[in-house]
Design brief:
Blueprint: E1 3-7, H1 16-31, E2 35-38, H2 44-55, E3 60-65, H3 66-71, E4 80-84, H4 87-97, E5 100-103, H5 108-122, E6 130-133, H6 140-151, H7 157-160, E7 163-166, H8 169-176
Parallel strand pairs: 1-2, 1-5, 2-3, 3-4, 5-6, 6-7
């Protein structure tokens, strides 16, 4: 089975569309016969995503550092839950278990994971597609900043294309060839 790694917030955000998008993404992934790898939490968008996958009898693997297991309230009903020692080990394991990466809205952790997946692709550490579901324009400012970095000569046009961004799952899946 192919697994898509989903990066998303440990909060649900202030707009209900973020949680709705997590549910719709879960439905779409399960309908394609794929599974989900994610941060292992039961709260925020992580919990919404996990519950939606499980409600559809999908496969979901969580990876969470022991130190965060209590704080993020590790999800108890997952297909598999891996407890690791560090955030570095978490990101490496999530990458190893996945065939693609998609970011939903989130905070610093989500941005960290997304940027590392992009950087690893750029460095040739993996060749897995990286996508960003731009729910209700949440990532517009980030995308503008990346385009600004291209214009200023810090990111090449080729490397800018590593990140596939789209406002709908269907268009994102098509861009990522999933």
């Amino acid at each position: 089975m192919k697994y898509i790694c989903i990066f998303c917030g440990s909060q649900t955000g202030s707009n209900g569309i973020y949680a709705q998008s997590a549910v719709e993404l879960a439905r779409s992934i399960v309908a394609k016969g794929m599974g989900v790898v994610y941060g292992g939490g039961s709260i925020g968008l992580m919990g919404v995503l996990a519950d939606a996958v499980l409600a559809r009898n999908g496969s979901i693997i969580g990876v969470i550092p022991r130190a965060l297991a209590d704080r993020e309230i590790a999800h108890g009903g997952l297909t598999q839950l891996h407890l690791v020692t560090s955030m570095h080990e978490r990101k490496a394991m999530m990458a190893d278990l996945s065939t693609a990466f998609i970011a939903l809205p989130g905070g610093y952790g989500t941005l960290d994971e997304l940027c590392e997946a992009i950087t690893w692709f750029q460095l040739g550490i993996h060749d897995k597609p990286v996508g960003l579901l731009n729910v209700d324009g949440y990532f517009d400012a980030l995308l503008q900043m990346l385009d600004h970095a291209v214009a200023e000569g810090f990111i090449s046009q080729e490397n800018r294309r590593i990140l596939n961004a789209a406002p709908t799952m269907q268009s994102l899946f098509a861009a990522m060839k999933l």
